[in-house]
Design brief:
heterodimer, A: Aldehyde Dehydrogenase, Chain A, domain 1, Aldehyde Dehydrogenase, Chain A, domain 2, seven-stranded mixed sheet, five-stranded parallel sheet, 14 helices, B: alpha/beta, 10 helices, 13 strands, 31% helix
Chain lengths: 461, 366
Amino acid sequence: MAEPRTDPAQLDALGAQGTFRARNRVAVTDVAGREVAELSLVPPVFVERTMKSLHRAASAAVDERISMIARAAELFSTAALGGQSVEEYEYLVSRVGGIPISEVRATTRAIAARLRKVHYSVEHARPAGSVTRWDDPLTRTGRAVWARRGSVFAVHAAGNHPGPHSLWPESLALGYRVAVRPSRREPFTPHRLITALRGAGFNNDQVVLLPTDHATADAVLRGADLGMVYGGEDVVRKYATHSSILPQGPGRSKILVTEEVDWRDHLDTIVDSVSGHGGTGCVNTTAILVEGDPTPLCEALAERLSSVPSLPPEDPRAVCPVQPVATAKGFEALLLHKAAGAKPWLGGDGIAEELGDGSAVLRPAIHQLDRPNAPQTSVELPFPCVWVAPWTHEAGLTPLRNSLVLTVMTHDTRLVDRLLEEPSISNVYVGDHRTYWMESGMPHDGYLAEFLMRCKSVIRD
Amino acid sequence: MPRASTEVLDLPVDVRPEPDVLIRAAMEWHFHPDTGSRFWLERAKTLPFDPRSDIRTHEDLRLFPNMAAELRDVPAEVLIPQGYGRRPDVVGVFESGGTTGAPKRVVLLRDWLERMLHWSNANLDAHGFPGGANWLGLVPTGPHIVGEYFRRSATTHGRHGFTVDLDPRWVKKLIAGGRGADADAYAEHLIDQAGLVLRTQDIGVLTITPPLLERLARRDDLAELVNEKVRAIRWGGTQLDPDSRYLYKTEVFPKTVLCGNYGSTMILGIAGERPDLPEDSGCVFDAYSPYVTFSVVDSQTLRPVAYGDRGRVLVHHVSKSFFLPNNLERDTAVRIEPLAGHVGDAVADIAPVETFEDEAVIEGVY
């Protein structure tokens, strides 16, 4: 286990002219409230000048971009960057984000793997009839050319988990210049990733890190052609009518088990879906709907999840996320409030278990609901927290709507047809698949490239 | 007991009175039945002391209650010291921003305006502002005293003053009402107008608020015009953070003098940026001591905080034209040692009174 540093690390802004250490810096604290880094926050005038530089900059040729991203994958996952080893990075993310260290380590590898296949991934999003260059011989007789919708892309990044940072580099692969505003909760991952991308050959004015306070955040989006924003329901509502902003909202992933399938054959998959990866992801299962009596499933889940250990996040055996006590108590209070009327199987007396250093483990919660359309099925919290409800064919699709991932364990192919046709369900996994299953080349919430690219007709003499 | 002479209230503009001598003269003037304002003569009856005999030093001003809130309701006439006679030389009646409720009113008299301007112009000279230049002002106009000071500074230190109408109360109302897009449009409208002046007129000095300076800098053509024509920028009204200040000085407007002021209607003028501060530091503001003095205090006890610590800004204004002690501003600042010979504190890193947002627990994972 890496030893914590004595001085707080300096996380400088990574601007178009190089690093910038602001006078305005905020402390980044670990789950025990101890300061581990200072993050430089840049003012609007810095943001605006940087965004202008991105617009003026050119992009490298496509094959060079792909090769640099692959090199960045190696640097990110193996090299000492700015004096920070991979182990130190992983330790900080674990301590600050409260994510189990084994999960952080796995994610380092997963991010590197996705970056190595970034061209493979984005090519899956390209409409089959299109070509990528106007001088492709096919355009002589008329052809669609896949083209960028803009040239500068801004990201308001997530801080719940390092994993989502494997997505936005697709925009670099497509030739965008990119500005990332990190989450103040966990700025280490984008800082390291952008440092790696620059080390691999991207210029300072091609990819930047712009930490800002809340008031300045909009300036990052305003300076870009297109943007992606991670957040809750409020963010989704705010940007619902903005065609240039792609909101990444709540996941509310679910599992449906119909009558002809015995959940006992899939208990590992169900348990993992709830609690795997620390249970903090948008692809972790929020609700399970079971045709028939959900009681035996609740009982089995409670038995499996009650025995998970309460450990600090940097312990290799840690499974559950950890947060500062005040935050953990806040989630606990919210859970208990939301759980009114539900039958608790686990976590009914609370889920925050203090570790004695100012942090608390967020332990699993399992609640049984008495009807499929109970409002709790959409209450998504950043720890293993699942709502189990009965389901009937009469209840239909309504309780399954608004799901990032729906794993359906059924033999009813007509039901699968209908689930696939439901617009508010983003991904449908049929059978024994964890809701957090992801693979390069597979869309997460649609392909990011669907948003970043469009087809243009080209014909020439 | 011999009464203090009030002659010291009329010293030439380039001579500063000894602080406690000024206090005693001002007490004699503002609380004498023949010369005091009806406002103060009325309130003196409720005071547990006699200002003319009991207030002897600058420190004694602390004994007065904070009367600033009453300036919301009183008729402006009663604020004028009767010693100015039947036809006082009133420049105008001005109002506070109105951020915290109904605006407070003050009366600006000619002799104080001249005194304040003399001091403020000397501060501009110390910063290297060019004399005789045309000025362009993007500052609040109408009832706001800053607009008057802009015009008078332009015509005394410079040549002509070009202005743009700016109503900050409407902007605040738009923002409070969630109409951010309308507030944006209004601000862009101001910049458009500034652009027309900058393009056609020979502007050497720009007076502007930091948010508008940021918008102006966003437009490449206007930033270029500023770099081409404008030799000095005077900012004020809201704060400029040290990082932005550094970037303006080194990257955005590297050839232009940048000088801040910290103004308030209740002090009937401004405090000026201390000259020769390093580029890398925040702004330190010195008040026009001994007429205008700051104390940086704990907002509960009203006792001074330590140098280098943050507290609320408490202001005294003591001149022939006006007396307002112990006005607790809505700003906080870091307490800085004053210049030699000054009473009160210098202030730095001004910020609005902190409001703590509860870290609400929000559903979701991001």
